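Hello again,

I reread your note about wanting to compare the complex against the isolated chains. To keep things tidy I'm splitting this into two emails, and this first one only covers the full assembly. Below are the input lines as submitted, including protein chains and any nucleic acid or small-molecule components. They are followed by the predicted structure of everything together. The single-chain runs will come separately.
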Amino acid sequence: MKPTKILLTAAAIATAAGGVSAEEMTIVSWGGAYSKSQLKAYHEPYSEKSGVTILNDDSSNEAVAKLRAMNEAGNITWDVVDVVAADAIRLCDEGLAMEIDPDTMLAPAPDGTSAADDFGELLVSDCFIPQIVYSTAFGYRTDLVGDTPPTDICAVFDLEAYPGKRSLEKRPINNMEWALLCDGVAKDDVYDVLATPEGQEQALKKLDTIKDSVVWWSAGADTPQLLADGEVIMGSTYNGRLFSVIEEQKQPVAMLWDAQVFDLDGWIIPAGLSDERKQRALDYIMFATDTQRLADQAKYISYGPARASSAPLVGQHAELGIDMAPHMPTDPENAKNTFLYNYEFWADYRDDIDAKFQAWLAQ
Amino acid sequence: MLAADGTPLKQSLARSLRRQKLRALLLISPLLLFVMFSFIVPIASMLFRSVENSIVSETLPLTVEALGNWDEKSGELPGEDVYDAFVRDMVIAIDDKKHTRLGSRLNYEETGMSSMFRRSGRSLKKLDPETDGPFKDQLIEIHDGWGDVKTWQVIKTHSAPITNGYFLNAVDMQRTPDGAQAQPEDKQILIKLFGRTLFMSLVITGSCILLAYPVSYLLATLPMRVSNMLMIFVLLPFWTSLLVRTSAWKVMLQQQGVINETLVWLGLVADDARLVIINNQIGTITAMTHILLPFMILPMYSVMQTIPITYTRAAKSMGATNWTTFWRIYFPQSIPGIGAGSILVFILSIGYYITPEIVGGTKGVFISNRIAYHISSSLNWGLAAALGTILLGVVLLLYWVYDKIVGIDNVKLG
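Full-complex prediction:
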């Protein structure tokens, strides 16, 4: 062996022996356009500032199961994980995510407002640091709905005015709420009704009226594809996906914002990290969830920043050069009638209603 | 009889044989260890998870003991001793952050437990078990669920460290104070899915046999140069990613897809009556038959290659018709290939879930889709393990039946 080679080998062994190199961290997210927006808005500036190399892992859709398996194996290889709020609550309940103190671990707003007040009621779990507000809303084909485009959520259930297929997510969440809303239940009573077996039956009965005209989706990319191919005339999906169909791919699709359901996506730090890694993860979180960084992300994807103080800083799309504010689910024009995902209700009822929903689907 | 060195021959032989056996064991030990740790141990731990339920008795040891004296069928709330024990257990559990985990576990059995434990945790943390009693009324004040007989029934019914509860859930039943009972009708789904999985796997295996037999026959009888060419066509899709092939079927089969567009263009199908051939059972069967076809062709082909052409010539020379030659001479010799291919295809298809999820709609999904849901979404790993165990049992049972009817030595891969 030549001396240089020996040196390199020695260095490699030393690095391996030290476990994860001191300058690396693994961040888990969803992949695709969403990960790209995080790379531009958070990872690149952070690496430049701190010198830490960030490794990306696109495993967020199975993060809960994987974190549990890692926890049982006693070897946690992830440092920061991007999950939806419902998963964060589950991880927190299972003791798999670390509790966060917003006042000491998160940056205050530029005007001095504490992080707790800046995020407000979006801090839905002790372990969760919200990043974006996204919504599940409907998109429809402008060329297939006739002269009166739908403006009301109940158009989804109106086969006479809007004949054709519609795509809905293959799970009860959101669909049950919309069904009740269009079956005459007042918005404030939806969850009280849905908590009873009769209410669940009522929602399924309403869904029964359109069951034969529904294509059920399980991946967020399905509805955009179905709309683009003309397989369905309207369908629900995440608003960012619809933004890209409408503005980037220029398909004849428009938004039906009525009764959109807000949901949150954000970070958790796995429980049981070594002190050194925990410190690094917290340092990243402090940087990546400050007011400017959250506003920066909206340049790359049409999801609203979770901090109140970030909203005025939202600018134009980095490539298309269009104003992003009107495409945000939180824009006042779009948010006239909205739901906020009821986390506590669904944490309790998800398994029960899901079993009924799946049994109903299989009939 | 004595060997050359004076020891009895029998003993000497045994010693040398033992050495041989030891050597053989050493030679296979890497594989044996590999199989042990990467296959048998995980499967065994999965099987165990389907009955393991120590979380209740470990998190609430005093409560479970106190509940032993309570008659759950009396319809009356347990006494102060249970509430006192419960507060003592919970104070420790909240310190270790285990109470929410227990809440999620019990929520699988009784909806509402999850938020009850999470919410009560915040208030219970402030109680001191030594000085703040009695607790019964305080607990009911914190959450009225603690004043519901059902809550305590659920805790007692599911307190055993080894439970059959997950297996009962897996066959649409549940554990209740009055023994095992059927789930409410609107929640029964799993038996139906088991049946559908078995039925569809059989249909897929059958259509694979029908399609693969002529192809393998061609491959085995054509000249080598041509058959090698054809073989590449069989293997090419085999090397393509599963997701790509499944998505390609979506493009083919959807209502605005290639097949429907062609049929409408030809005038065979009216524009407003396009065929529904995806998001249902037809979609699943079509896509999975295509995906699993190579697993049927390859064993059939390698068995057919070994069938001597002279037998069929002999039959024909003695006056047999083409059909008799095929049915009486060729077909029986090709059965081992059909058997091997069928077992491969059937067992693979029984565990499929990505393809049914993408093209199966609501009527074409398999039991594996539910297993995946419970592993990754609901985190009810006990139920997932019970479902997996039943699936494994069904496969072993069918294998045994197959052995009885066809005979397992009548299976050849070449």
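For quick reference: The longest helix of chain B spans residues 9-49.

B.
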